[in-house]
Amino acid sequence: MKQIYPFAAIVGQEQLKQALLLCAVDPSIGGVLIRGDKGSAKSTAARGLAAILPPIRRVPGCAFNCDPASPLPECSCCQGEHAVAEDAAVPFVNLPLGASEDRVLGSLDFEQALKQARQAFKPGLLANAHRGLLYIDEVNLLADHLVDVLLDVAAMGVNTVQREGLSISHPARITLLGTMNQEEGELRPQLLDRFGLMVDVAAPRDAAIRSEVVRRRLAFEADPLAFAARWQAEGSALQEQIRQAQAMLASVTVSDHLFDFISQLCCEFEVASLRADIVLHKAARALAALDGRAQVSAEDIRTAAMLVLPHRRRRKPFEQSGLDQDKLDELTQQAQNPPPPASPADSPASDDQQAGDRQDKPTEDSKDEPAQPDNGGEQVFAARAPQDIGTIRLASHSSDSEASGRRSTVLNARRGHSVRAVPNAQPQALALDATLRHAIQRNPAEFAVTRADLHDKVRTAKQGNLIVLVVDASGSMAAQQRMEQVKGTVLSLLQDAYQRRDQIAVIAFRGRQAELVLPPTRQVEQAEQALHALPTGGRTPLPHALQLAASTLGRQGAQGLSPLLVLLSDGRANVALGEDHADPWQQSLQLAGELADAAIPALVLDTEQAYVKLGRARQLAEAMRAEYLPCEQLSSEQLTITIQARLG
């Protein structure tokens, strides 16, 4: 058996260890999400927690991890006459990123089907993790169909399997432990909210602490058993502390004014989910229990708030998570020393007056900064505040993508959520359970599988997307400060891409040529930074931009990503490719036609605002067979743009 690095031997990372201990005391908190750089002890701490948890009672051999006090009726192990419960280690189950849905949910027991010609359920990872820990490394990379499964189980505490002749439900009360590196993409918001606590970790910056980490790690690798023995006493003490805290948790109370303080914190920090109030209450009680106190203090709530609220705050897509420490300290101080009840003469100002006072103060979201001159006659315009534009949907007919994404649904994908099984004498993905069930039903007396029994799995998946934003930054965009609107529009598109974890590339064109400002990436924050710094000025090399967009999309085509080209321009091309005597507008139309022939879905946002309009952006859209929209119509009207992905 592989030796686990002792939890007590972890150097530093006090907030991380505290969050894990809170979930050990009260598993209903929901788990811990650990975000941080590579090599910051994320996995080490998660795995070490299981070794110090007090044991649970279970019947040996039970695949459902039933509670002996209320065993599952379908569990033959716990329902047997000789079932005797004993102490056992808390389950620690690793969910691999590439796990199949059958492996996670459970499936037909093929051994019993083949030997006994009858249907029986084989429990999956969710059953194995019941009353224990489900660990997911790099949880932000988990496939969408598995995320959907986890959301259902986390919400209900029950795993229900109903498909292909099987119908069973079993308890699945699990504590989620997830690790992730934000450089590889964000976590789906619905799953993020299911993690009760969240901790950001980083490698220590203090040389003495780093050296101690290295010393202990090398000592562990040299002799794991001896190293574990050195920390046995500290581990046993932590286990006893958890046991005592679990025993006294039910008796820990929260005073009325601290109940109000919890809700006040959630309101002050703009937390939308009511789950935050509940988890904050549970975490504060667990903190008091760990400390051996029967009464929650304001400081307990403050400490818990640092773990519960940051990832639930209502924030803009590019805003960093976190809490205002000064504000949190001030509110905590007020809760520790509540003011006496106010008399009628001391009644606060009316809501209208307070609202007026707030309106007099400048806001951080104000984007009305004056344009700043740049070298060479260029200007840098600030972006207008982004609007909620709703959703851009790609209606794709492709059926062979393996990429996992958010925007485009693909039927008959090679990987993904299995929705049904269909008869197929030459299946691409054999549905064993449906095949065996058909063979059993066809001839129960003489069980045999023939080609007529074969079934194929039908899967649905989400297809990844690459959005190439082509932004006109020529001098015409400076007129009437149109670049402010263009940048604000791009930020709105980036919000949609952020929520769906699309890959983003940004091409800007001005002067004599187009430039790939940002190569394809999932880090849309980089696109936002590049956009804010983008200068405006010079001529309009539109043909260069369309040519660069085509080559960028072509290089990425082999990655199985569904492309989307978004062009923001007035279409007034005046710089040609190659020879100076060529017509840049005709070149633009020709390149637009080539994009259409390549079946590239596209959206043209017309930025033209002149009194006399040439309508060239609309002509470009027609040549590209793209959807056309004036820029000003992309507003807060919850517009849904559906772009049909064509086949060449």
Automatic annotation (TrEMBL):
It comes from the Bacteria. Residues 466-647 form the VWFA domain. SUPFAM superfamilies: P-loop containing nucleoside triphosphate hydrolases (SSF52540), vWA-like (SSF53300). Residues 355-370 have a biased composition (Basic and acidic residues). Gene3D superfamilies: Magnesium chelatase subunit I, C-Terminal domain (1.10.8.80), P-loop containing nucleotide triphosphate hydrolases (3.40.50.300), von Willebrand factor, type A domain (3.40.50.410). InterPro entries: AAA+_ATPase (IPR003593), BchD/ChlD_VWA (IPR041702), ChlI/MoxR_AAA_lid (IPR041628), Cob_chelat_sub_put (IPR012804), Mg-chelatase_DI-like (IPR052989), Mg_chelatse_chII-like_cat_dom (IPR000523), P-loop_NTPase (IPR027417), VWF_A (IPR002035). GO terms for molecular function: ATP binding. Keywords: ATP-binding, Nucleotide-binding. CDD domains: AAA (cd00009), vWA_Magnesium_chelatase (cd01451). Pathway: Porphyrin-containing compound metabolism; bacteriochlorophyll biosynthesis. Residues 344-353 have a biased composition (Low complexity). It holds the Pfam family AAA_lid_2. Residues 333-380 are annotated as: Disordered. Involved in bacteriochlorophyll biosynthesis; introduces a magnesium ion into protoporphyrin IX to yield Mg-protoporphyrin IX. NCBIfam families: Cob-chelat-sub (TIGR02442). Belongs to the Mg-chelatase subunits D/I family. This is Mg-protoporphyrin IX chelatase. It comes from Aquitalea aquatica. The lineage of its organism: Bacteria, Pseudomonadati, Pseudomonadota, Betaproteobacteria, Neisseriales.
